[in-house]
């Protein structure tokens, strides 16, 4: 019996020692940051693709399988995934990643959230987020916060490799801080410019670079704009000589392009996540792409 147990332990422990931490995230941006922190010690999968609207996703059995096998699950939070994630969490039958468990991370918990609605929120206001704007990954300074949160979780789940996670975090932080300074310098000409967007996805990005979002095409999230709002938008764009309309590339492009035709403003359908456009394969690459697109249009 002792020999059998010894052979069993020899068979198990080398595998455990070499096993990667299995991370599943809701979005590609969280996945990209998790890869930076985890390096070769983790395997990372995202549920949403970069060109999908993370507000609305049809739950699939394949998502349940991914979550069932996860050691760490990371979500954007602030109710971004409220329409589809709860059912997947339940169906995953994975106690390690349920809310409150060690293997669960709400990446928004330390984020300085903006656009928290005041007063009562109800369905007449559209798909509004009562906890505030959840698109915080579009400010790279928040990417630093997310990376620290992921490193903290990995250090708890895999304490033997804590030094490696801390080294990876330090490398990523140093590089991203340097890139943030370079992006801010590169985008200095955008500061003070007015733009119109489809949804409030770009609020954090605009705040970071000093761009003003004069208005949005969709005044109530998830509800098509009434004709009266489109008329007021046309007047606003013409009177303030707003040159650019930005639409997230997973939305119907027709409203923004119709508005562009009626006002002469330039229209750009832009990716807002890693993988949302060909060649945008890293978190840093997302900001290279977005700043390049805006500088080319303004």
Count the E strands. 8
Characterize the biggest β-sheet. 4 strands, parallel
Low-confidence runs of at least 5 consecutive residues: 1-15
Strand order of the largest sheet: 2-1-3-4
Query: Whole-number average pLDDT?
Result: 92
Rounded Rg: 22 Å
**Fraction of residues in β-strands:** 5-15%
Fold and architecture overview:
- This protein has helices spanning 2-18, 28-38, 61-68, 85-92, 140-157, 162-186, 203-209, 227-239, 254-263, 283-297, and strands at residues 21-25, 42-46, 72-75, 104-106, 194-197, 212-216, 244-248, 266-270.
- With 298 residues, it is α/β, with parallel strands linked by helices.
- Helix 4 links the parallel strand 3 (72-75) and strand 4 (104-106).
- Helix 5 (140-157) runs antiparallel to helix 6 (162-186) and helix 6 runs parallel beside helix 10.
- The protein is globular and about 60 Å long.
Summary?
With 298 residues, this protein is of the alpha/beta class. It has ten helices and eight strands.
Write the layout of secondary structure elements.
Layout: H1 2-18, E1 21-25, H2 28-38, E2 42-46, H3 61-68, E3 72-75, H4 85-92, E4 104-106, H5 140-157, H6 162-186, E5 194-197, H7 203-209, E6 212-216, H8 227-239, E7 244-248, H9 254-263, E8 266-270, H10 283-297
Parallel strand pairs: 1-2, 1-3, 3-4, 5-6, 5-7, 7-8
Helix pairs in contact: 2-5, 3-4, 5-6, 6-10
């Amino acid at each position: 019996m002792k020999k059998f147990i010894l052979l069993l332990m020899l068979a198990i422990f080398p595998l455990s020692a070499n096993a990667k931490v299995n991370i599943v995230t809701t979005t590609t941006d969280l996945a990209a940051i998790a890869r930076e922190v985890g390096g070769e010690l983790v395997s990372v999968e995202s549920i949403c693709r970069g060109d999908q609207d993370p507000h609305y996703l049809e739950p699939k059995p394949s998502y349940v399988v991914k979550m069932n096998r996860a050691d760490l699950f990371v979500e954007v939070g602030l109710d971004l995934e409220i329409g589809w994630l709860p059912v997947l969490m339940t169906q995953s039958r994975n106690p390690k990643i349920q809310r409150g468990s060690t293997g669960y991370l709400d990446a928004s918990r330390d984020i300085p959230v903006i656009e928290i609605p005041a007063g009562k929120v109800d369905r007449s206001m559209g798909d509004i987020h009562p906890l505030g704007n959840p698109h915080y990954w579009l400010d790279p300074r928040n990417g630093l916060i997310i990376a620290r949160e992921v490193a903290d979780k990995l250090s708890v789940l895999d304490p033997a490799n804590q030094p490696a996670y801390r080294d990876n975090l330090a490398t990523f932080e140093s590089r991203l801080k340097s890139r943030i300074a370079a992006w801010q310098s590169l985008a200095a000409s955008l500061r003070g410019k007015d733009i119109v967007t489809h949804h409030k996805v770009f609020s954090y990005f605009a705040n970071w670079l000093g761009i003003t979002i004069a208005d949005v095409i969709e005044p109530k999230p998830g509800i098509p704009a009434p004709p009266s709002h489109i008329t007021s938008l046309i007047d606003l764009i013409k009177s303030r000589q707003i040159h650019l309309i930005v639409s997230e590339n997973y939305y119907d492009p027709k409203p923004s392009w119709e508005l562009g035709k009626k006002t002469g403003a330039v229209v750009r359908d832009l990716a807002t996540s890693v993988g949302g456009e060909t060649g945008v394969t890293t978190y840093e690459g997302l900001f290279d792409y977005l700043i390049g697109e805006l500088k080319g249009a303004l």
